[in-house]
Amino acid sequence: MIQWKGNRSTRKGILRRRQLLAACLVLSSGVCALASNTTSTEARDLYFAALFPFTSTGEESKIAWGVKVAINLALQHVNNSTQILNGYRLNMESYDTKCDMAEGTKALFEAMAEGPPKLMILGGICSDVTAPVAEAVLWWNMIQLSYANTEPFLSEREKYPTFFRTVPSETDFNPAKLKLLDHFNWTRVATIHQDTPRFSMAHSKLSSALESVGKKLILVASFTEDPEKAVKDVKDSGARIILGYFDERMARRIFCQAFKNRVFGSRYVWIIPGWYSENWWDDIDLQSECTLQQVTEAIRGYLATDMLSLAKTEEPTVSGLTPYEYHQRYRRLSGSNYTVLHGYAYDGVWVIAAAIDRVLKQWDNASTLTSTFNYGNDQMFQVFMEAMNETDFVGVTGPVRFKDGDRLGTIVYEQYQDGKEIPVGEYYAYSDGYRMTDNILWEGGSPPADQPIIKRYPHAVSFILYVIMGSLSYLGIMVALMFLFFNMKFRKHRFIKMSSPFLNNLIIIGGILCYGSIYFLGLDGTYLNDHEFSIICTVKSWMIATGFTIAFGAMFSKTWRVYSIFTNIKMKKKVIRDYRLFGIVGVLLMVDVVILLSWGLKDPLQRKVVEGPEQPDPGGRDSSIILVMHHCESVHMTIWLAAIYIYKGVLMIFGCFLAWETRHVNIPALNDSKYIGMSVYNVVVMCTVGGALSFVIRNNPNAAFVIMSLFILFSTTITLCLVFVPKILELKRDPKGEDRKIRCTTSKGSLRIPPSSSSTDFSDRVKCLNAERIRLNRLLEEKDREVSFLLEQIGSGNSMMSHPSEADIARSVSATLLLNEERGHSYLPRSRDGNATRNEDVLHNPMDDLEEFTSAFLPSMCHLPHLS
Q: Which of 292, 589, 620, 636 is buried most deeply by CB count within 10 Å?
């Protein structure tokens, strides 16, 4: 039972006004009898008032004449039925509202004041009349039933507590739309509505319903007269499913703008009201700015939710007729006044009849009810309200039930196909169920997605590239192992031994580590768990860092030794043994270990999933592709990388400096000094360029992997070849190492420095002159001592000795040295007995021999001008 809502003073005021009106009506017409001028054996007449806009100038007039045919047919069937209102005859009294509020209110007062009392009000059609009538009937304890008004505001029970309707409300279409969204799995929608009370309220309730079921409303666009901006906003939002609330005049303009903005086709679905007139798109007005062809192209495939004008069942209805049989009779009687609302008007008469029948059966004395009825009887009014709420029968429009005055009816889904609207499904409000048919068509062959289908693909290194680079790395490792085997097998060969083979082994080990890091650089982390991925990240960083340090450190230490010897201006004997060079490499490696160990303990590397930008499907499908990449990162990764780069950057800068300073040194005794310098340059350039590019193309795994792998392969292979290929060639030329010719040059070609040499060569020339002077002074001192000793032996005095001049000695020695060099003599250290020392005796430590050779013989090999 529906109770009135509102505060107590409001209810008292309403009751007081109703009592006054009832008293006026009683005074004017007396106590009304429903069975006037009848005998006890005749059927008693019952009346209801019907409001029609017969003389309206709009479409409502045609609807009024069309529904009147259905109402008269329903009255005929009710009065002929033996199942309802036995002994009574239901009658209708019609009043013309002219679709005007004033005329409608006047018609209501006339209906209440004149003629027999009316048990209910049926109508109207125009909302301007229906709304004020629905407020006024409360004063007479009357119930109003509408068969045409779908406005959502009429569902407000506080304002219209006695209003019922057999036609679904605009808001009753919302559950049907939600079911449609669920059926096609659409979760992201946009709405566009006309800014009027009728559509704004329905849209507001839809927005709340969407939120309650977890749908995402990505845009709410509204307009008053010009929908251009609203349609553009819908397009810019990226929405694909668009729910529209607007009348058919605006519908034509909206779809004109949809055509201009290309918001139609296989990627879009418009869901609009379905109660527009037939072929509504044909009526193109001047404001649409589009042709009929353009509008029909834009509306292609739209979906509509419409009230079901006639049930599809073959079962008999409450009247005993099937919906089809009723429709045939109505068609025959209506002629040109056909309206789609005829079924709701027909069922409305049956609702009134069923309610009155239920009241008559519930009332203790039916004759008292019919003979003493008046509008001020609150008890009788409550019985009528209960009877309306308990309505439940099968009509020609489907099951007829009410909830808070609104019809729990059937909504039909329609789709525009080939110039007409085709039913494609139904929604049943009384059971909250739906049914879809198979005749729905989609342009793309399937329902469009509510957003571009985002396909996430792991963007890892291509398997083909991984195999290619892995194969090249394998070849590099095999070459490195061959060099290691060669270096160890021939380490006692004079030419190999003089180049510190054990330091060369470090270069090979570092190269192998760098080659091996390529396998970890290209691993696909998609199928690894987080712990395994973290281990791979750590191993990769350790292999690259330590491999670089070991290889570059060994080259760096050898270059430093050459630099130290050849910048020894005082030409003192300087011994730099291999263990000191190993110590340098160990210190550099220890710095790496400290940094990497601290990094791993304090801020370990973890997986970071990075998604690339959305890319359109290359196949033209309505989908987007997002490439997912897995990176190794830590919280403070920038700090750790900065520490490593600064440390190794300083090391490479210093290595470049040493390589530049020793660029003209060519020592066959230390046969790889020039190649070591070239390797340092190679590593520095490759590391600098490769490191920079790795940051730029980080989100392109294939490019990053190829570039990093090529830089590692190239720099490592070039370094190993520069260090070991010359040794292999020398071994082939001199398998036994018997060639004892040793040359020392500090410029291209030989140490003969022409007078026209550059400033850099002039500095080398000065060094040679100083060294020659020191050597000659030492030689003079020794000769002086020998002469003094001989003179003492023979008893001669020192005064008889005449010492040769320093210039004479220099010229003599220089001439002798040049003559011997031209004859191909070797300049090897000699033993105290004056004999040349054998190779295997002097090469017990290559650097001892080299430094002794440098300090003792390098000055004598310089071709010096005459000191005048």
A: 589
String of b and e for 261-279 (b: at least 16 CB within 10 Å)?
A: bebbeeebbbbbbbbbeee
Residue type, 680: V
Please check whether residue 131 is in contact with residue 50, taking contact to mean a CB–CB distance below 8 angstroms.
no
Asked if 673 and 665 count as a contact pair (C-beta separation under 8 A), the reply is yes
Q: What whole-number distance in Å separates Cα of residue 433 and Cα of residue 444?
A: 28
The helix (run of H) or strand (run of E) holding residue 251 is: helix 248-260
pLDDT, tens only, 812-864? 444 443 334 333 443 334 444 444 333 333 333 444 444 443 443 333 333 33
Higher pLDDT, 301 or 794: 301
Tokens of residue 718, six digits: 């070039």
- As to burial, measured by CB atoms within 10 angstroms (0-12 exposed, 13-18 middle, 19+ buried), residue 88 is buried
Omega before residue 444 within 30° of 0, cis: no
Question: Where do the H-state alpha helices sit in 364-462?
Answer: 366-372, 378-389
550 Cβ contact list (under 8 Å, min separation 6): 506, 507, 509, 510, 513, 585, 589
Residue 23 confidence (pLDDT): 40
Helix (H, G, I), strand (E, B) or coil at 52: strand
Hey, is 297 helix, strand or coil? helix
Q: Cβ(632)–Cβ(604) under 8 Å?
A: no
Closest CA to 212 of 181, 244, 245, 234: 181
pLDDT tens per residue, range 72-131:
999 999 999 988 988 899 999 999 999 999 999 999 999 988 888 899 999 888 988 999
Residue 847: closest CA among 523, 577, 493 = 577
Q: Which of 117, 137, 138, 140 is nearest to 371 (CA)?
A: 117
- The residue count for the chain: 868
The DSSP 8-state label assigned to residue 358 in this structure reads H
Tell me the pLDDT band of 676, cut-offs 50, 70 and 90: low
Q: Are 267 and 448 in contact (CB under 8 A)?
A: yes
Q: Are 168 and 397 in contact (CB under 8 A)?
A: no
Predicted confidence (pLDDT) per residue in 538-558, tens digit: 898 898 888 888 888 887 788
Task: Write the DSSP string, 803-848.
Answer: PPPHHHHHHHHHHHHHHHHHTT-----B-TTSPBPPHHHHTTSHHH
Spatial distance between the Cα atoms of 74 and 397, rounded to a whole number of angstroms: 13
For residue 797, give both structure tokens: 């005095």
Across 139-143, 358-362, 769-773, 835-839, least confident range: 835-839
Coil, strand or helix: which one is 119? coil
DSSP state of 189: E
Burial status of residue 3 (CB atoms within 10 A of its CB: 0-12, 13-18, 19 or more) = exposed
Average pLDDT over residues 409-418: 90
Inter-CA distances, 353 with 39, 48, 78, 381, 419, Å: 22, 10, 7, 16, 41
Query: Rounded to whole angstroms, how far apart are CA atoms 414 and 303?
Result: 6
C-alpha span between 366 and 376 (Å, rounded) = 18
Model confidence at 258: pLDDT above 90: yes
What is the SS3 assignment for 555-599?
HHHHHHHHHHHHCCCCCCCCCCCHHHHHHHHHHHHHHHHHHHHHH
The helix/strand/coil state of 48 is: strand
pLDDT in tens, 175-200: 999 999 999 999 999 999 999 888 88
- Burial of 225 from C-beta contacts in 10 A (0-12 / 13-18 / 19+): exposed
**What whole-number distance in Å separates Cα of residue 514 and Cα of residue 550?**
10
Residue matched to tokens 């062959």: 445
